[in-house]
Amino acid sequence: MTDLTIAAPPARGGTTPPAHQWALHAVTATALLAWYVYSLFVPAYQVPGPVAVANRMLGFVTDPLLALQLGISLAHVGAAIALAFVAGAAAALCAHYLPVTRLLIDSRLTPFLNAFSGIGWLFLGILWFGINHTTVVFAVTMILIPFTIINLRAGLAELDTELIELGSSLTRAPVALMSKVIVPMLVPYMFATLRISFGVAWKVTLTAELFGGNSGVGYLLNVARQEFDTETIFAVILFILLFVAFTEVFMFRPLQRRLDRRYRLA
Amino acid sequence: MPKARTRIVEHGFAEGAIVLALVGWWLTARGLPSYVLPGPPEVLLTVVRFFTDPALLYHLGVSFGRVAAAVAIAMGLAVTLAVMARSSPFLMAVLERRLLVMLNSFPSVGWAILGVVWFSVSNPTVIFIEVAIILPFCLTNALEGFRNIDTELEEMGASMSRNGWRRFTRLTLPLVMPFLAAGLRISFGICWKIALVAELFGAQSGLGYLLMQAQSSANAAMVFACCLVIVLVVFVVDRLLLAPLAAAYSRNRGLA
After folding, report:
1. What is the pTM of this model?
2. Contact B227 A241 (CB under 8 A)
3. CB contact under 8 A, A16 and B227
4. With an 8 Å Cβ cutoff, are B113 and A225 in contact?
5. How far A104 CA sits from the closest chain B CA (Å)?
6. How many domains does chain A have?
7. Whether ipTM exceeds 0.85
8. What is the CATH number of the domain that holds A184?
9. Which of B112, B113, B108, B115 is nearest to B134 (CA)?
10. Considering only CB atoms, which chain A residues are within 8 Å of B13?
11. What is the pLDDT of residues B186-219, one digit of tens each?
12. What letter does residue B121 receive in the DSSP assignment?
């Protein structure tokens, strides 16, 4: 199989005891305090204080123009994930059901895409499409496609053939077999794919927007960088951190738990 | 032998598709100006220049050195943290639920901008940015590796030697090596693919600098060549160094 060991996200070991919960919050508070104290001793263009950054973040939430940029970035991420999922699924299904194409996809196309530089896609996109939405979505999509192929291929390879045989003895309709047996078995892998794609997409979308976009949060970062507006840089980064952490805690983890419960087959 | 025949068909299909893609590229490129799509010969010549022209070889070498240093530092840091966290469940919780959560969602370009703002442009700055970007991948693998150690084997080791360092190098390290090797492969790839962004912010050498230059002078052949050289380097190092390393250790453990 291919090299990456990120086929399914590793299960987080155990839950934290409540005593640790409090200690963890204390660690967060200490880090904030250390940041505050440190910011008193260095110039604000290097490390602005937590209060100034919090004010800037409040400004972000209330300013519709900035909220719009956040929305544009979200749209970039969503579009790239959807496109990469469709393209990756097509390649993975092709390799699974047409054995002739297996070598081409598994040991030629995927390793090539996997080794191709994300920055490279971005610069090629700028050459071909100019500085706009297309370039951003193109670059992020191309970065995500190998992750998608690898994950879905792993899922297809793990399919329980006995269940499929059982299914095909019950119906001849390929659509019914696909939707009732195969797709449900693939759900955990599709979920893992989306989860990984989401994490990677956020990391690279900002880069793509910074160099190849004229809108979105990455573009804001670029403007702030040129003006040495470190407060805005901190505020944007904190927003991304909070956003990704919240989606992880309130969306992906509960969903994962539900999936785990449903698919807990011995 | 039907098996051999299917292999030949598979290879024919795979290699045929690649040749077809190259021909398609060549035909498309003929009708387009070279700053949009350079033809395969032009790009190939530029790739060759990377290994003959000392100036280009220098940039490649600089990037390679930075990536190697960053991967080594990040891995060393990850192993140190993971070893420390083994004896303290609290530190483990801090690493997993605070540090990793933060590092995992930190945008890579954020590190690049902050690195330049904090330390100005220099070799150590680029390495700092690359370390910050790949550290979560190394740390995840190191923590997972140490969590999977068979404690009975460790107890047996403790009954055989009192020398802690000896037990660490002879027993613990080989047991976590499969995870570290996987972490090395992932972070080496990511360093070349994404962490190269560190060189785009004003560095005066390296492949990122070359890409930036090629971009601003609309030298599409150079952009293509940089991409292909990166693919080549990642491929060769992975096949010749990292994959054998991973394979050696997974055989030791009796896996696959």
Report:
1. 0.84
2. no
3. no
4. yes
5. 4
6. 1
7. no
8. 1.10.3720.10
9. B108
10. 100-101, 103-104
11. 888 888 888 788 888 878 889 999 998 888 888 8
12. S
- The phi and psi torsions of A215 (rounded to 5 degrees) equal -160, 170
CA distance B42 to chain A (A): 16
Residue B18 in contact with residue A110, Cβ under 8 Å?
no
Residue A233 lies in a domain: yes
Is residue A2 a part of any domain in this protein? no
Tens digit of each residue's pLDDT (9 = 90 or more) over A211-263: 888 888 899 899 988 888 888 899 888 888 888 888 888 888 888 888 888 77
CB contact (8 A) between residue A46 and residue B117:
yes
CA distance to B66, B116, B179, per residue, from B72 (Å): 10, 22, 15
For an interface test with B, the pick among A45, A100, A112, A119 (most B C-beta atoms closer than 10 Å) comes out as: A119
Span A66-109, pLDDT tens digits? 788 888 999 999 999 999 999 999 999 888 888 888 888 888 88
In a domain, A244, yes or no: yes
Please report whether residue A80 resides in a domain: yes
* Contact across the interface for B193 and A116, Cβ inside 8 Å: yes
Q: Provide the number of CB pairs (under 8 Å) joining chain A to chain B.
A: 160
Inter-chain residue contact B17 with A108, CB threshold 8 Å? yes
Chain A residues with beta carbon closer than 8 angstroms to that of B21: none
Domain that includes residue A144, residue range: 53-262
Residue of A nearest to B102 (CA): A241
Within 8 A of B93 by CB-CB distance, chain A residues are 16, 20, 23-24
Write down the mean pLDDT value for chain A: 83
